[in-house]
Amino acid sequence: QSVLTQPPSVSAAPGQTVTISCSGSTSNIGGNSVSWYQHVPGTAPKLLVSDNNERPSGIPDRFSASKSGTSATLGITGLQTGDEADYYCGTWDGSLSAGVFGGGTKLTVL
Amino acid sequence: EVQLVESGGGPVKPGGSLRLSCVASGFTFSIYTIHWVRQAPGRGLEWVSSISSSSSYINYAGSVKGRFSISRDNVKNSVYLQMNSLRAEDTAVYYCARAHSNLVDYWGQGTLVTVSS
Questions:
Q1: Residues 72-91 of B with CB under 8 A from A
Q2: Inter-chain touch B45–A104, beta carbons under 8 Å
Q3: Taking a C-beta distance cutoff of 8 angstroms, is the pair B26, B1 a contact?
């Protein structure tokens, strides 16, 4: 059981937009910035965006993030087949003094 | 280019020990907190441990507290994870990652630890 809650899967057609939610509490999302990661099995996870929409170089602006209260959202526009991967939200939990991740969301581009 | 390279994984019997290493390059290692994160087969990412730049702040997940120990050598640009009393549920790919914002940005490729009799 993960501290942060994500839907197990989402799907959409190429070119469409999808959002992935991440729900937490005041000790994690409510008090800290949230980062989103893309993970293709067998490779290293990759930081996509933080909830202030800070993106590492090379990450397109098709990926965006937002936060409200104790929930965060990742948005992906203009879906491409190459976006198929597992997506994770993550942050620090001040009460646990530990990093926490969501359970992951598998994105399928139909 | 930021690089993190893990090593030291492999097969081990339940109750055994293993020491993972993470060597960093391409950034000023000594000013960064470093984290270990793992992924068990078929499961999601699980945060394991972190160590601050001067080793003053160390944290562990409840699932490994008392069994795992993290340390670092800023001269060798390295972080270590000593894993004792290993259990089958510790089987996972272990990643080291550089701290960023409230969690991490760059990750290594991972090293596989398999605990089995």
A1: none
A2: yes
A3: yes
Gap between the Cα atoms of A98 and A88, Å rounded: 16
User: Does residue A3 sit at the B interface (CB-CB below 8 Å)?
Assistant: no
d(CA B20, CA B40): 16
Of A35, A44, A97, Cβ closest to residue B108: A44
Q: Is A92 on the interface with B (CB under 8 A)?
A: yes
Q: Is the pLDDT of residue A47 over 90?
A: yes
Residue A52: predicted pLDDT = 77
Task: Tell whether B108 is within 8 A of chain A (Cβ).
Answer: yes
Cα–Cα nearest to B113, from B97, B95, B91: B91
The verdict on B59 touching A (C-beta cutoff 8 Å) is: yes
N-to-C CA span, chain A = 28
Long-range contacts of A92-96 (CB under 8 A, 24+ apart): A92/A28, A92/A32, A92/B102, A92/B103, A93/A3, A93/A27, A93/A28, A93/A32, A94/A27, A94/A28, A94/A31, A94/A32, A95/A27, A95/A28, A96/A3, A96/A27, A96/B62
What pLDDT sits at residue B24?
A: 97
> Does A53 score more than 90 pLDDT?
no
CB-CB under 8 Å, B95 with A45: yes
* Residues in chain B, pLDDT under 70: none
d(CA A90, CA A86) in angstroms, rounded, equals 13
Question: Which residue has 């030291």 as its token pair?
Answer: B8
> Which chain A residues contact residue B106 at CB under 8 A?
47
